[in-house]
Design a protein that fits this description.
By secondary structure, the chain is mostly helical. It has one domain: Ferritin, CATH 1.20.1260. Helices cover about 75% and strands about 0% of the residues. The relative contact order is 0.16.
């Protein structure tokens, strides 16, 4: 059984993960409309990853006999002028998610909920990867600047990204 405090915090995190997915889907649609199929693909994969993160939390609450409460998803932005602007927003957003995961980890420790803390350890590592990916792409877009050919090549590279479901999802 899971405490109400942890259950409520995880339900908040589920909502945040779905909001993140919705944000990345919005980014994908923005760049799809602008002809950046590769960038759109990158954000579509992010959308799928965030859905999987929410599902991991949902499955965990069910395993712990908790109650999943789905809440409304707040509106997300829908327009980014440049890929660089979108990836800067992505990094800032991922930093906020990292803080939320860290706060949830701290709550699990204070509640002596070691099972939840153990599950959250995967998310702590995942957030390091998420921030690093965004940071690397920001660096690439800054290097490219206004070079159309460079942007074309990076867009093409990003079209190769494929979704891999997290192994923790199947647990």
């Amino acid at each position: 059984m899971i405490s109400n405090k942890i259950q409520d915090a995880i339900n908040d995190q589920i909502n945040a993960e779905f909001w993140s997915g919705y944000l990345y889907l919005s980014m994908a649609m923005n760049f799809e409309a602008k002809g950046y199929a590769g960038i759109a693909n990158w954000f579509r994969i992010q959308f799928k990853e965030e859905q999987a993160h929410a599902e991991i939390f949902i499955n965990y609450l069910v395993q712990r006999e908790g109650r999943v409460v789905l809440k409304p998803i707040a509106e997300v932005p829908s327009e980014w002028d440049t890929p660089l602007a979108a990836f800067i927003d992505t990094l800032e957003h991922e930093k906020k998610v990292t803080a939320m995961i860290n706060n949830l980890f701290s709550l699990a420790e204070s509640e002596h909920d070691y099972a939840t803390r153990d599950r959250l350890a995967w998310f702590v590592s995942e957030q390091v990867e998420e921030e690093d990916n965004a940071r690397q792409l920001i660096d690439k877009f800054k290097l490219i600047g206004d070079n159309g050919f460079g942007l074309y090549m990076l867009d093409r590279e990003l079209s190769q990204r494929a979704y891999n479901a997290p192994s923790i999802l199947g647990e």
